[in-house]
Write a structure and sequence with these properties.
The protein is an alpha+beta fold and 268 residues long. 35% of the residues lie in helices and 28% in strands. The protein contains eight helices and 13 strands. The strands form two sheets. It has a seven-stranded mixed β-sheet with strand order 7-8-9-10-11-6-12, with helices on both faces. Strand 10, helix 7 and strand 11 form a beta-alpha-beta unit. Helix 5 packs across helix 6. It is globular.
Length: 268
């Protein structure tokens, strides 16, 4: 009984994240396939961390894995497989490992009650935060995001197309691409998702040369304000080790940790 309760809670909490992934799978630049309780999403960007298998593995786990491998091979993208704790069995981990999908990281699923956060911080002189609303602005956001994650320029065309899709209808109703600039130079970026019941935070990064100045906190507070303005009370995210101190300081709490598997050693 306790296990079923945990499964239900994990599925519910991950629901907004999975809703965002499904919305990404609906973009004109993406491909998505449902296989029973599993979903495969390729965003068209050849970075493992931007292509996903998520949901619940079925009884035919080896076949599920073969279907996933075939799907992403056809799309030409590496991928990651995201599993919540209650749905990960030692036997399935062995199946994944047998096909070269190793556990690359365990990002925490975190949630914030935005009614308990403090007010937005004033911007310092020379700083500005704005939303990308046009195709050129979305592509500028994509360039800044890739630089923040130290991803090479070879990914710019596909990731820029992905970002540009987010400002077209109907997707612009569900996403906000925010950029922070300092003295006219791009410094930080984040994607706010409103695709699920809870707001979601994705692609949060600060360029290395701008870190340690409190700019990440400024951008995070603005994203929280935007989410509350859109009627959301809770915000969720999947944290990297680098971002964890900021999220904890802001009031996010950890609920559980995903296990993320990939054949790509650069995943996570």
């Amino acid at each position: 009984m306790e296990t079923e309760i945990m499964k239900s809670l994990e599925r519910k909490q991950a629901g907004s994240f999975f809703s965002t992934l499904r919305m990404w799978g609906s973009l004109p630049t993406s491909r998505m396939e449902d296989r029973g309780l599993l979903s495969f999403v390729s965003t068209g960007v050849p970075i493992a961390d931007q292509n996903y298998v998520f949901g619940t593995p079925g009884d035919e786990q080896e076949k599920d894995l073969e279907r996933a491998i075939s799907f992403f091979r056809l799309q030409g993208t590496p991928f990651t497989w995201w599993i919540t704790p209650s749905f990960l069995s030692p036997g399935f981990e062995d199946i994944l490992r047998g096909r070269g999908l190793l556990k690359r990281c365990s990002p925490p699923e975190m949630v914030l009650d935005m009614e308990k956060t403090g007010p937005e911080l004033p911007l310092p002189a020379g700083a500005d935060i704005f939303e990308a609303r046009s195709d050129p602005e979305a592509r500028a956001w994509a360039r800044l995001s890739l630089e923040g994650f130290d991803s090479g320029p070879e990914f710019r065309p596909s990731f820029s197309n992905f970002a540009a899709s987010l400002v077209s209808r109907p997707f612009s109703s569900f996403f906000r691409m925010l950029l922070l600039s300092l003295e006219g130079r791009g410094a930080a970026s984040v994607l706010l998702s409103l695709a699920g019941k809870n707001a979601g935070l994705h692609y949060f990064s600060v360029l290395p040369s701008f870190r340690g100045r409190g700019l990440g906190q400024l951008l995070l507070k603005r994203a929280i304000r935007e989410a509350r303005r859109e009627g959301r009370r809770y915000m969720e995210l999947q944290s990297s080790p680098m971002g964890l101190p900021l999220y904890k300081k802001t009031g996010f709490r950890e609920l559980f940790r995903f296990s993320v598997y990939s054949s790509d050693p650069e995943a996570c």
